[in-house]
Design brief:
Blueprint lengths: L11 H6 L39 H21 L10 E10 H4 L1 E9 L8 E9 L6 E8 L25 E2 L2 E2 L13 H6 L3 E6 L34 H16 L5 E11 L1 H12 L5 E5 L17 H7 L22 H6 L6 E6 L7 H17 L17 E2 L2 E6 L7 H15 L5
Parallel strand pairs: 4-7, 4-8, 8-9, 9-10, 10-12
Antiparallel strand pairs: 1-2, 2-3, 3-7, 5-6, 11-12
Length: 432
């Protein structure tokens, strides 16, 4: 098939809306022409590796799902360790009247091996004061430190290495970092809708650079602790996703949060991370991918926008080393990203794209969501429920949600409104 899944095609309106120069395209040689998408055949998520069919929900849960997880571990993201023994939590602060009385602001240190000198991560948690507790929550990693997500001066300043950017000096946060990413984290709006919001700086787990493992959790915990990585050992995305599970370990103990109703969310590379965390850890009650693209929600076999060679060339440390074998030969991968989305089933899943973000292949993200739908149906749930990609700014879906937002690669207030409404349907009764 050429650029289709089951005969699906984008509407003329959608094609027109996305017919713009890709914003910030990293590779001028990338394909942005649907006519040049090669013919491809997707692996069937409801067939075992030996070709036999998955017949029922039991087959999926006990055999096929573990098989797919193993394939993604071996060929894409790598194997990660279990929760470390001795892990403990330190509540560093709990302010019951933060944000002028709107929220409880809690800051927690997770001691991953139980020691003061070992690896740790810092959780910034906001809980709405007015909502009946325990409340459902959103959990996501952030790019520039917890203090960047909100200008509140009471947020502890990160001491970890980070990429230089607004307020960052010599790879360290300063007070000028405060609130620089607040547009992506509408804290007050999330609280107003009755949800807690928790975030962790991804650099607490591993700095986002080729040698980041040396000062991250991979140098201290689990596969790779010797510095000699097997082809299927975990990489940075695996480490970041593992950290999300450790943050969930804490949220499950917090009396103000319902640990059974936590949605994991991520944007861009952290959208890839959220999908992998949600696939591996079924405790996450909902999974949200915002503009995650190649290696996230977009189909690799489409060879549109960013490709495997781009990922493994620029960011080889994000994925297990075996993934590099598929640069330029995506059709040889034993999995594709619709099967990653299928691993979320039957939990609610939301995938979102942006019209100017052609590098992330919005259509490939939509088609992956449609191709995951048979697994949701097998498990007695609905999927997207539409046959054509929706026009911009028109959310669609049932148990799988999708929207194509007008604009660039970003996590915006519009995106959050859709995720909150989706969560209202699946994690709680509708808000007033």
């Amino acid at each position: 098939m050429r650029g289709t899944v089951g005969g699906l095609a984008a509407s003329a309106a959608v094609v027109s809306a996305m017919a713009v120069s890709p914003a910030g395209a990293q590779d001028s040689g990338a394909n942005y022409d649907e006519a040049k998408v090669p013919a491809y055949t997707l692996p069937d998520p409801l067939r075992f590796a030996d070709g036999s069919p998955v017949r029922d929900a039991s087959d999926w849960a006990t055999k096929r799902r573990p098989e797919l997880l193993r394939l993604f571990e071996e060929h894409v993201y790598g194997r990660r360790p279990a929760s470390p023994s001795g892990m403990r939590f330190e509540v560093l602060e709990s302010d019951p009247r933060a944000l002028s009385g709107l929220a409880i602001r809690r800051q927690v240190r997770v001691l991953l091996d139980g020691t003061e000198t070992g690896p740790s991560l810092g959780i910034l948690l906001w809980v709405p004061v007015s909502a009946p507790r325990p409340v459902p929550a959103f959990l996501g990693l952030n790019f520039h430190g917890n203090e960047a997500t909100h200008p509140d001066p009471g947020i502890r300043l990160s001491s970890m290495w980070m990429s230089n950017g607004p307020g960052v000096v010599d790879h360290r946060a300063t007070d000028a970092t405060r609130g620089t990413d607040a547009a992506a984290w509408p804290v007050e709006r999330v609280l107003d809708r009755g949800y807690a919001l928790a975030t962790v700086y991804y650099g607490d787990l591993e700095p986002d650079r080729p040698d980041g493992w040396r000062s991250g959790v991979r140098a201290r915990i689990g596969p790779g602790v010797t510095g000699r990585f097997a082809p299927d050992d975990w990489a940075a995305i695996g480490a970041w996703a593992w950290g999300l599970s450790r943050a969930l370990d804490y949220l499950a103990t917090d009396p103000d949060v319902d640990g059974r109703r936590v949605a994991v969310i991520g944007h861009s590379r952290l959208g890839k991370t959220a999908l992998w965390a949600g696939a591996e850890d079924e405790r996450f009650a909902m999974v949200v991918s915002n503009d995650s693209g190649e290696g996230g929600a977009a189909l690799a076999r489409r060879k549109f926008g960013e490709r495997t060679a781009d990922l493994t060339g620029a960011f080889p440390y994000w994925f297990c080393s075996r993934f590099r074998d598929y640069a330029g030969r995506e059709e040889d991968l034993p999995v594709d990203q619709h099967e990653l989305l299928a691993l979320v089933a039957p939990r609610p899943l939301y995938v979102a794209s942006a019209t100017e973000d052609l590098w992330a292949d919005p259509r490939g993200e939509f088609l992956a969501a449609t191709a995951a739908e048979p697994v949701f149906r097998l498990l007695g749930r609905g999927g997207l429920g539409v046959a054509e990609m929706p026009v911009p700014d028109r959310p669609v879906g049932d148990r799988i949600g999708y929207h194509l937002r007008r604009g660039p690669h970003a996590l915006t207030a519009y995106d959050w409104e859709q995720y909150l409404s989706f969560a209202d349907r699946h994690l709680r009764a509708p808000h007033p």
